[in-house]
Amino acid sequence: MKKLFKLKEWLTLEETARRLTTSFQEEVSIADCLQLALDGHIIISALIEKNRYGMWAEKRSPLSKELLAGFNKFLLEKGVLKENPHVLDDAVEAISNRMPIRMSRYGEVFRLETGIYDLPMIGAEVLDVLHLCSIHQGREPATFINLDGPFLIDDERYISIVEPFIEKAVGYKMDDAGKLRLFDEKRKEFVTPDNYHSSFYPADGLRDVEFVFRRVNIEQFEKQQLDEYTDLNLNESLFVIGAIIDALKNTSTKSKRWTQDSLKLEIVENTENIKNRTLDNYFSEANKFYKSNC
User: Which helix (H) or strand (E) holds 6?
Assistant: First the structure.
């Protein structure tokens, strides 16, 4: 699994749980992996295998945010809080950050290619992951809806998943210019960026997809957790290594079978420069790093 991990581009939920269990030396379940994704700690992805339709989408500033910015400018021009203008800026930013994201679709409707897509967790895809997480936690899944539908990320661009009102009515047809385009047989017209809403609507969820985790996203998550131990430094690490070498070299019993606890006891007894708790931290992180990279 450890060597194979480096060759895989993505892992299933079960494989990810096993990987993180090994990396962090504590039991990690599928529900834990899904919860970490919901909480924004790790990026989760979806394997799209069936034919799905999508449109490009982009984030747009909410109208209320634009109104707040205009109101802020008006107050500044009137001299309100002119001695502390940053107060208004901070207030606008704080309020804006709590506003829901507004997405705008653009371009032609297109079929998605089979592959792995990251989830931005801004639309109905959140509800799909939450539903599966509830099942793995042994809870009754709640029923929610998101009218914007689910979104995916492809090459740092957003894709809005849309579905035809009548599945069999939509297909590809050659136009007068010899270009293959989506055609709505019921409406007797080609689907365009201006009329797509007459033939398509935002999907209510991702439905039949498999949730997975990309290897690069797992590695990034593991690195972030290891980097949190700011109390561990290079000089102290070298000191610990030196103390281990000294303990092994100067032991009176050459045939002794060393364990982590016996090494720790030997080091603490022979030096006053390091404590039990510090050694525990270094040994723990060293074990995690070794097991996740060997």
Answer: helix 2-7
CA distance 58 to 105: 7
DSSP string, 152-214: EEETTEEEEEEEESSGGGEEEEE-TTS-EEEEETTTTEE--TTTGGGTEEE-S---S-EEEEE
User: Do residues 284 and 25 touch, judged by C-beta distance below 8 A?
Assistant: yes
pLDDT bracket for residue 1 (50, 70, 90): low
How far apart are the C-alpha atoms of 84 and 94, rounded to whole Å? 16
Predicted local distance difference test score (pLDDT) of residue 245: 76
**Owner of token pair 């498999």:** 210
Strand partners of residue 56 = 106, 159
| Contact in structure between 154 and 117 (CB atoms under 8 Å) | yes
* pLDDT mean over 108-121: 97
Give per-residue pLDDT as tens, 231-275: 666 677 777 787 777 777 777 666 667 788 888 887 877 777 777
Spatial distance between the Cα atoms of 11 and 210, rounded to a whole number of angstroms = 11
Q: How many helices and strands (H and E) does the chain possess?
A: 10, 12
Q: How many whole angstroms separate alpha carbon 148 and alpha carbon 17?
A: 31
Residue ranges with strand state E in the chain = 10-12, 45-48, 53-60, 102-111, 115-118, 151-154, 157-164, 170-174, 180-184, 189-190, 200-202, 210-214
Q: What is the pLDDT of residues 22-69, one digit of tens each?
A: 988 899 999 999 999 999 999 999 999 888 999 999 988 655 555 666
Q: Are 209 and 47 in contact (CB under 8 A)?
A: yes
Q: Cα–Cα distance between 22 and 192 in angstroms, integer?
A: 50
